[in-house]
Write a structure and sequence with these properties.
single chain, alpha/beta, two-stranded parallel sheet
Length: about 170
């Protein structure tokens, strides 16, 4: 018996346990590279957990976050990423070495917007991501895995408990 159904798309599944491994591996890459960030800057929402883990692993207590909206749904995105308020004042980061953390560099445009926003103020900015896609416009300095598959993150692989647009989710 043959099936005319298309094969299921390849998926990269990140469990919470693997996430812990990824954080430590990325932190080790930073240490091995000799980079000593003054601050870890998370790109919310996906980079928040990574930034926290890197902060602990690298003994960096100065953490901050920037909110960027780009994805509006599965494979649905705005034309360009938009930084949402409140954003850390770029002037407050003057002279600092910044490690920018995000879950994935897919198009890379979100990382590019954030890096470029702070570029003229910081001493140095480097990026760390759990996953990097081959078509990204930004190649992160620190990458745990490279993939062209759809990624199931443990925090977003199940639907929210609440649908903020329409009430309780089912």
């Amino acid at each position: 018996m043959t099936s005319d159904a298309a094969p299921a798309p390849e998926r990269e599944v990140l469990t919470y346990e693997l996430f812990g491994t990824a954080v430590r591996d990325l932190a080790q890459q930073v240490v091995d590279d000799g980079f000593e960030p003054d601050i870890v800057l998370a790109i919310a929402r996906g980079g928040l957990g990574l930034a926290m883990g890197l902060g602990y692993a690298l003994d960096v207590k100065n953490l901050s976050a920037v909110n960027v909206e780009f994805y509006t749904g599965v494979n649905e995105r705005l034309d360009v990423p938009m930084m949402l308020p409140p954003t850390p004042a770029a002037i407050d980061l003057t002279g600092m070495k910044v490690l920018i953390a995000d879950d994935v560099a897919d198009t890379g445009k979100t990382l590019e917007v954030v890096r470029d926003f702070f570029a003229d103020h910081v001493a140095e900015a480097r990026t760390a991501v759990i996953y990097e896609k081959p078509w990204t416009v930004i190649n992160a300095e620190y990458v745990w895995r490279r993939t062209d598959a759809w990624i199931d993150f443990p925090w977003s692989s199940t639907p929210p408990l609440v649908d903020r647009r329409g009430g309780l989710a089912h």
